[in-house]
Amino acid sequence: MKKTGIVYATKTKHSEKLAKAIGSALDVKPQNIDSRPRFTGVDLLFIVGGIYGGESNEKLVEYVKSIDPAATKAVALVTNCASGRQKQLSVRRILEGNGVQVVDEFVCKGAILFVALRHPDKKDLANAVDFTKTVIGTSMEH
Length: 142
Prior knowledge:
Elements: E1 4-8, H1 14-26, E2 31-32, E3 44-52, E4 55-56, H2 58-64, E5 74-81, H3 89-97, E6 101-109, H4 122-141
Parallel strand pairs: 1-2, 1-3, 3-5, 5-6
Antiparallel strand pairs: 3-4
């Protein structure tokens, strides 16, 4: 079995909700980036975060700068945003620029003000879990 980790950054608890659903399904404890978790020998790290005002969570952006490519072979991103379509481009650029492979990204709706208030909902959580299982299965084949 490959070693898997989960980190998240959250302002609204939506990313935490996604991280906990993924962690429960994978039997891996998600860690808030506020605790500055460090990983060694991780085959696949799931990074869960949201988009705020069109940009990735600034704390998440700072955290990913510290990820050691020698300690983390690959990353998969799990993103929530009001549109349900926007990706973590700045996070991806930093990771890839530092030599960390980004294998895939899942994006779902996240509530903001009065938009999409119930998201991420049960279906979003189930889809995020399905995504993580697919990514793990695909990464284990290589």
